[in-house]
Amino acid sequence: MRQTFDESTDPSFGPKHVPLIREAMARQGLDAFVVPHEDEHQNEYLPEANDRLAWATGFTGSAGAAVIFKDKAAIFVDGRYSLQVRDQVDPGLFEVRDLVDGGVPAYLEAAAARGQAIGYDPRLHSPDALERLKRAAEKAGAQLRPVTPNPLDAAWGEKRPPQPKAPVVPHPLEYAGEDSAAKRARVGASLAEKSADAAVLTAPASIAWLFNIRGGDVIRSPLPIGQAILEKDGSAQLFLDPAKVTPELPAWLGNQVALQPPEALPAALKALGGRRVLVDPAQSAAWYLEQLGEAGAQVIRAEDPCALPRACKNPVEIEGARRAHARDGAALSRFLHWLATEAQTSLPDEVEVVTRLEGFREQTGALKDLSFDTIAGAGPNGAIVHYRPTTRLNRRTEPGSLLLVDSGAQYLDGTTDVTRTVAIGEPSREMAERFTLVLKGHLALARVRFPQGTTGSALDALARAPLWSAGLDYDHGTGHGVGSYLGVHEGPQRISKAPSPVALRPGMIVSNEPGYYKEGAYGIRIENLQFVTEPAPVPGGERPMLGFETLTLAPIDRRLIVREMLTEEERTQMDAYHARVLAVVGPQVEPDVRAWLEEACAPL
């Protein structure tokens, strides 16, 4: 098993570790310390050695923060983790607050006292995030003070796990679709257009994409941790731990890329003095800007120059995504067949559900890893948006309930992410009606046509409108970007209520995942991945329009669809999707699965 069901933390972490952090704070003359979830590379999913928030609080979600004062503490999470945080964190020690509505800055402004010193680690905060903290501290009359090493790391000490050293390997051109030299020349030219001489790159996904390399330093993502300096002529320095450099890597990188150890990075930044250097203030830690400023470089604050070209998949990557999803669809269909037949009477628990699904993916012979730990929420656990089964929380499926399974895989040719909600036994009318409302929103977002320049935030309401009409909603984004054998969450594109400055462009892969969650009862989510298609004429129209092509291929539970709630257009769309699933997946599966698939994909 790639996924385990042990819990790495528990609510005792806070009471055990916060006193140690406070002792270290006192030695540094601090009244408070800010603990972000992000690490030195602004990662979402973290190596164990960098999961500081989990060690300090017990909370293991992929977004959050904490502030530890001498006499009080608070933890901040978004709507996805409102239930999880109650289970993992000691409520007597940490006040639970909203990460989005005001978040840490609003708390500091209200909780800090005049003259207090609030510590932060400049390697862990982006300049943008740090600026918001500074403004809040100033309003409170407190002082934000950089500290290195930070008190949390000092308290963790020798018990802290070692940094990962996974081998860094070439990512072949048959999957990447463009060689590194061409990418570096293209991105280098974009630097010149911004009047930049060079760019400092710290995001592992950008480094993996730009140099056509993959690693394993970040959980569930084939990412190498490192840094790079890219010159406008396309030459580069790549900073990697020598222990991770495989024998074939230097020749793969070529003569224009100089491999350097991490210890050489400060001197390399200092050597950029007097030059114009681009740094992404949302992706790179404040430490980099401070180092460049001290060196006398002129910093250009701009988006990571790899982010947009990485998001717009080339034809080879799109074709790879199609292959990966066809392969994954066969594994998913075998799994859904098991859920629809044997599991209806055996009533498996969540751990068995996860184990079975992973086994079907392993049988493809192409699985490199999961793209995230599988979410399998039976009954009320399905209402916990980012729930992960553990031995302690493991729940058995029951007749008359729903099972929500959100999972994904990493293949060399693509990354998958799919959610299906399945009825166990006979669902209630309410379950089916609310499932159908979610489905209507999902279908609306799948078939929409839109002009160039449209952002994901302009489309978000399409997925929510059917739920809104019934007085319902969900507290997570509708769609996130997905990488090509990279991270399952990838920017800069997204589909959410939050304003987005990034327009959707051809080749971008996004998820389509509206949901509904009834706390203590059940959860519903329907998720497919889809990519933005090239602009094409609309019959009778005046402008070519972009659209989406769905990548995910797996049946949607027809037992949960209230047919009369769908329009004729929606029924036709649903039937066409299921016909495509049957055509692509049917030839790959065994006769008994094929027979079931024909029923599961029958026209409404």
How does this model look, in words?
- Residues 544-604 form the Peptidase M24 C-terminal domain.
- Residues 320-534 form the Peptidase M24 domain.
- Residues 21-149 form the Creatinase N-terminal domain.
- By secondary structure, the protein is an alpha+beta fold.
- It has 3 domains: 13-159, Creatine Amidinohydrolase, Chain A, domain 1 (3-Layer(aba) Sandwich); 169-310, Creatine Amidinohydrolase, Chain A, domain 1; 315-600, Creatinase/methionine aminopeptidase superfamily (Creatine Amidinohydrolase), CATH 3.90.230.10.
- It is 35% helix and 19% strand.
- The strands form 8 sheets. A 6-stranded mixed sheet has the order 4-3-2-1-5-6, with helices on both faces.
- Strand 26 and strand 27 form a beta hairpin.
- The protein is globular.
